[in-house]
C-alpha cells in the first residue's frame, strides 16, 4: 500500500482492473501504536544463536499483520525462539532497526527513503534481507460500474471533465481524491498539482475508512476516486478499475516534490538490523528465507478478519496447512 522508487525493487506497469483470482481473502486492519523501545533486545550467544527475543515491526496495513503473525509463530513454535510483534509506523520501524530495538521489517513499501539511505548506505546499521515474494502497487481507482458508465474517466487527461461528479463537502468546489492513513506513503498531492487536476486530496484517516468508502460506493452506485493498492482482500469483493496516470519512470521520481506519473510496482523487500543479521543465528537465517505469495498472505488475513480468529491462531492454521513451505524456510541446523 505504499511505494518507493529505487530501481532494485520497482517495476513499471499498465493500469488494470483489480479482480482477485482467489476467494481466500480477508483483512486485519491495525493501527500503529507507540514508538520503539530503545536499545537492542538481544545479542549473539556463544553458540552463535540469538539470545533474547526477536522483535518484528508490524506497520499499520494488512500485509504486515499477516507476515508478522506467521513469522512469530514459526520462530516460537518451530525454532523455539522468543519473538513478538511491535506495532509501528514505517518511520519509527526504521529508527528501531537502526538502534536495534527492532530486528526485522518484513514488508517495506519505501515510506522512509531518507532513513533507508541513512541507515543502509551511510551508517550500515540496516541490511537487506531479500524479497518477501509479494508484489505491491498503488494507484487511483474508481468502481467498475462508474468506469463502465464513464470510460473516459480512466485516462487522467479527462479527469477534470468529471471533477464535479467527485465533489464532496470536504473537497469543496473541487473533485475529491480520497486518501487513507496519513502515515501511508502517498504522492497524490504532488501528482494532482503537477498534472493541474481540479481535485483536492482528502485524508480518509485510516485503511478502514477507505474500505468503508469503497464498499459504500459499490453498494450505492456513487462516484468515488480513491487511492488504493494491491494486494488487498477487498479486491475480490469489490471490482475497481485503475485510472491511467502518465507511465512511471525513474526520472519522474528523482524529485519527490514534483512527481507527475504513476506509482511503480514494488517487489516488496525485507530488512534486518545489521547486528542481528550477523549474529542472529537461525532466527536471522529463517527471516531471510521467509518468502510467500499474495494468496498466502491474504489467506491469513481472511482467517483473522473474515472468520474472527486470533492472529496467533490464524498463523498456526496456515502453518499446519502449508508444512512444505514452512520446511523450506527453516535453517538446516534446526
TrEMBL record:
GO terms for cellular component: ATP-binding cassette (ABC) transporter complex. Residues 53-321 form the ABC-type glycine betaine transport system substrate-binding domain. Transmembrane segments: none annotated. Residues 1-35 form the signal peptide. Pfam families: OpuAC. It comes from the Bacteria. This is Glycine/betaine ABC transporter substrate-binding protein.
Amino acid at each position: 500500500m505504499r511505494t518507493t522508487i529505487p530501481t532494485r525493487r520497482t517495476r513499471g506497469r499498465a493500469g488494470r482492473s483489480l479482480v482477485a483470482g482467489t476467494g481466500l481473502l480477508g483483512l486485519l486492519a491495525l493501527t500503529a501504536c507507540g514508538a520503539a523501545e530503545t536499545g537492542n533486545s538481544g545479542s549473539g550467544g556463544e553458540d552463535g544463536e540469538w539470545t533474547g527475543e526477536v522483535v518484528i515491526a508490524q506497520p499499520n496495513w494488512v500485509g504486515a499483520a499477516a507476515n508478522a503473525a506467521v513469522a512469530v509463530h514459526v520462530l516460537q513454535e518451530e525454532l523455539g525462539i522468543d519473538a513478538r510483534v511491535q506495532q509501528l509506523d514505517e518511520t519509527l520501524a526504521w529508527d528501531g532497526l537502526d538502534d536495534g530495538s527492532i530486528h526485522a521489517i518484513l514488508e517495506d513499501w519505501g515510506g522512509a527513503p531518507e532513513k533507508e539511505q541513512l541507515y543502509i548506505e551511510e551508517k550500515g546499521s540496516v541490511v537487506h534481507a531479500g524479497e518477501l515474494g509479494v508484489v505491491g502497487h498503488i494507484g487511483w481507482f474508481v468502481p467498475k460500474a462508474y468506469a463502465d458508465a464513464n470510460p473516459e474517466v480512466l485516462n487522467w487527461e479527462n479527469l477534470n471533465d468529471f471533477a464535479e461528479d467527485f465533489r464532496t463537502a470536504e473537497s469543496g468546489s473541487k473533485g475529491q481524491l480520497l486518501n487513507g492513513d496519513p502515515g501511508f506513503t502517498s504522492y497524490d498531492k504532488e501528482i494532482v498539482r503537477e498534472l493541474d487536476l481540479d481535485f483536492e486530496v482528502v485524508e480518509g484517516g485510516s485503511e478502514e475508512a477507505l474500505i468503508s468508502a469503497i464498499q459504500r460506493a459499490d453498494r450505492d452506485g456513487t462516484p468515488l476516486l480513491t487511492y488504493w493498492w494491491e494486494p488487498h482482500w477487498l479486491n475480490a469483493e469489490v471490482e475497481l478499475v485503475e485510472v491511467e496516470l502518465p507511465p512511471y519512470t525513474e526520472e519522474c521520481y528523482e524529485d519527490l516534490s514534483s512527481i507527475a506519473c504513476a506509482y511503480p510496482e514494488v517487489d516488496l523487500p525485507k530488512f534486518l538490523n545489521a547486528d542481528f543479521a550477523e549474529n542472529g543465528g537461525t532466527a536471522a537465517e529463517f527471516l531471510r528465507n521467509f518468502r510467500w505469495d499474495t494468496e498466502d498472505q491474504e489467506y491469513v488475513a481472511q482467517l483473522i478478519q473474515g472468520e474472527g480468529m486470533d492472529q496467533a491462531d490464524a498463523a498456526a492454521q496456515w502453518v499446519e496447512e502449508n508444512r512444505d513451505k514452512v520446511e523450506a524456510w527453516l535453517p538446516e541446523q534446526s
